[in-house]
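Minutes, methods subgroup
Present: GH (chair), OT, SY

1. OT presented the first of two proteins processed in the latest run. Sequence and structure tokens recorded below as shown on screen.
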Amino acid sequence: MPDPVSLWKLRSDALVRARKAVRRGDPEALHDLRVALRRLSATAGALGRREISDDAKSLVRSLSEQRQLEVDRALLTKIGRLGFLSPDAATALAARWEKLATRGERRLAKAAGKPVETLVRRLDRLARRDGDAETPTARLEQARLRAERALEQPLDGRDDHAMHRYRIAVKKARYLAEDLGALGVSPWKGRAEREKDLQEALGRWNDLRMFCRRLVESRRDAEARGAVTLSRELGRLLATLEPTIAEVRRAAVDASRKVETSSRGPATAKPRARQRSATH
């Protein structure tokens, strides 16, 4: 089994790699940095390092708008290629959204600077310390069980806000399961894989939902500027996308049922702190 403290080294290394990717300008650098920070927040929260968890979560939130712009611009490019918007309309939107993204690049560079450097130093100090009397495995299992409570029921009938909260809960539960897998608690690996599929289904739904929200904002802006043709095109596009959003939403709900029916795996076992002789 890996050294318990090695989780801090894993989180530190992930941040360092993401930070270097940001500096190189890699296409997925922002996504990688936010994932590294989310994973750190989940691990630190489970192991009682609340300040580190909160700092990581705050950085994630500060980069949310910039990440959504990346997703929206990619979807706009795809929709333009498929011919759902005229070339003029697609070009006009792309130009406006690119300006917004350029402004956000300064925020990304700032976040990947001193704030991430400070987190890395703190994690490196933790990685050099001896483990606590209570093993991280026990604390992670307890945190994982708490995280699972939000996943006990499928998503049938829930509104978008509840769907979004469920999506965040799935990420946290999956990251904790992967932490346990890294510590050698192998039964959790299967749960993490199923939750990854659910997370991806919910991600597709959320990406499309937020993209449509930006389209609505762009349509209002076009109306305010008197760009009647662009406004009409965006209205037609939104109507065209409605069935697709509904279909993607149903797929996410179906995926949540599969995770719920598999919840009687290792998640129902008592935490290792209470069953130290159990083999997971």
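2. SY then presented the second protein from the same run.
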Amino acid sequence: MEPPTALGLRAKARCDQLGEAPYSEADDHLVRRFLTAAHRAALDALSGWMEAAGMGVHIDPAANLIGRYEGRKAGAPALVIGSHIDTVRNGGRYDGALGVMLGLECVEALSAAGIRLSFAIEVIAFGDEEGSRFPSSMVCSRALAGVVDEQVLTMADGDGVTLAQALIEFGLPADDLTGAAREADTVLAFLEAHIEQGPVLEAEDLPIGVVSAIAAQERLKVRFSGTAGHAGTTPMSLRRDPGPAAAEAILAVERLCAGGEDGLVGTVGRIEALPGAYNVIPGSVTLTLDVRAETEAARDDAVAEIATALEAIAQQRGLELDIQLMQSLPASPCDPTLTALLSNAVRQIGVTPRKLASGAGHDAMVMAGLCPTAMLFIRCAGGISHNPAESVKPEDVAIAARAMLAFIANLETRQNAWEAERGE
């Protein structure tokens, strides 16, 4: 196999390459949203790298790019290694994309050494994890896992383009997301490598970590509705202004989630006041709310408390309140057997296998409904992510590559022993 350091350097370099136009929708910052020209350019580049590594490549009905490296027996179940290649606006280069590049590099190392395994390896680039174009995230992994709701096809982006229309423009069928679903017996396991997006590994001077579980989360849309009016002629005492209510709501979220028990966090990420003119009192203000915790019970309790607080704010100010659930994802523990194999792999390359939970959501939490999952975290500078300052050390990426190859070897050993027991 190629030296692990070379693998790490190449994976990072490919992420850097995809951090600029035409792989970004903008020239001065990185934004690569689902089913855009930048997304297409990234798929084209990845397809070329996958084919050069000896993989069969195709795009499924959900726009997932899948490269398959066959095992010793054609059609064998696959270890799927993947992550997402979409970004938030003005995002970083390594969130998601690094996991895809590391999966590709593992296959390149196996292919260069002429190694075929008892299972296939598939590298998947999910096109939508962030939900930065349409108001729902992880559409691609949900489609592959067979848990997508076909109603997502009617969701529209900020320009009014529905997901169905965007799929057609991308050259895919508009009504066949279910066609991306995989049968459970075709997938052996799922491994996702991802930057930590937090400060724990850096604080403990560790290059990589093993994820034990992914937090539960809910996304909600909150709308306070009042009465639009002239900013200069409507007395303050006679206004039904949803703006101050929205401000109170944000502070209520901060107050109710401030304890941080069970990893509880709450975020208002987007605010929209309509009609949005300088001289008009808003008729409505809409907020997005993201609540996460390590357990579903802690998340649900917080959401209930927040809803009660918002109802009181609306009632006190004579406003109408609408709270709409946009997405609910359960807590997702990683598979104990795979986590043990990954921990052993990390130990084998001379790193202490630090286990930690993920407060961020990942495609792995969706894939857990289809197959056993494992996750590897990679240290990122300052814990910064979703930001152009996102940064990783080449030597950490090299260590991650070594750990992933060791995990693949451990999984092969386990599979061979299992097949021997069955007399295959």
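Chair's summary of item 2: Residues 394-422 form the longest helix (29 residues).
Next meeting: continue with the remaining queue.
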